[in-house]
């Protein structure tokens, strides 16, 4: 019995959710604000932007900034930056409302000759006051793909550039010691030339004094003559005398 009741309750909740999803947004009461009032607010704001001149924009910015307002000055600056890329204003397009929790968001398409815009108004659902207003350019699929490709290439280029820089830094660690050694060798004082080995001077042996051998020769000649039985030493001549050590 409990299971049947549970199933019935689930079916009822499902039917209610389906009924809410199929509800006409133009007939829903958004916390006291109707669909037409929300659309009128967005339409008036979108229609006034193309009619504002540059002088009016500057004066409006000065006025709102003096009042301490930040939302409208941001919208005007955004419009001033992108209006040159949009071309001529044509008309207003689709309007839609999205309710999520305590936030209600309305979007309105603004059609131009070159590129369309989306005006988004964000409401605080508790008091239905606008908390934010933004303008966004509508890009085609080709433009989105091109932009994505450019972002990808820039990301890859940045990554590879950093990797190449890291490789160069690592390689430089090998060069720095060589450059340091080269600088040290360049700044070092010249080394003293090695002194040639001193060859000791040859020791000159003192010559033995040459004695006068005249008398010795006469004595030796007389002894030889006596040994041979000669009366005088005239028959021979003593040419040299060698001393034995």
Tell me briefly what this model is.
This protein is an alpha+beta fold and 245 residues long. It has helices at residues 2-21, 35-48, 54-66, 71-82, 141-187, 214-228, and strands spanning 89-100, 103-112, 117-124, 129-137.
Distance N terminus to C terminus?
A: 153 Å
User: What share of residues are in beta strands?
Assistant: 15-25%
Question: How many E-type strands?
Answer: 4
Number of helices: 6
Residue stretches low in confidence (pLDDT < 50, at least 5 long) are 16-20
How would you write the strand order of the largest sheet?
Answer: 1-2-3-4
| Structural shape | rod-shaped
Derived structural class: alpha+beta
Q: Summarize the main sheet.
A: 4 strands, antiparallel
Quaternary assembly: single chain
Mean pLDDT over the residues? 79
The H-and-E topology, N to C, reads as HHHHEEEEHH
Integer-rounded radius of gyration: 60 Å
> Residue share in helices?
40-55%
Would you give an account of this structure?
The chain has 245 residues and is of the alpha+beta class. The chain is built from six helices and four strands. The protein has helices at residues 2-21, 35-48, 54-66, 71-82, 141-187, 214-228, and strands spanning 89-100, 103-112, 117-124, 129-137. The chain is rod-shaped and about 185 Å long. The chain starts with a helix and ends in a 17-residue tail after the last helix.
Topology of this protein?
Blueprint: H1 2-21, H2 35-48, H3 54-66, H4 71-82, E1 89-100, E2 103-112, E3 117-124, E4 129-137, H5 141-187, H6 214-228
Antiparallel strand pairs: 1-2, 2-3, 3-4
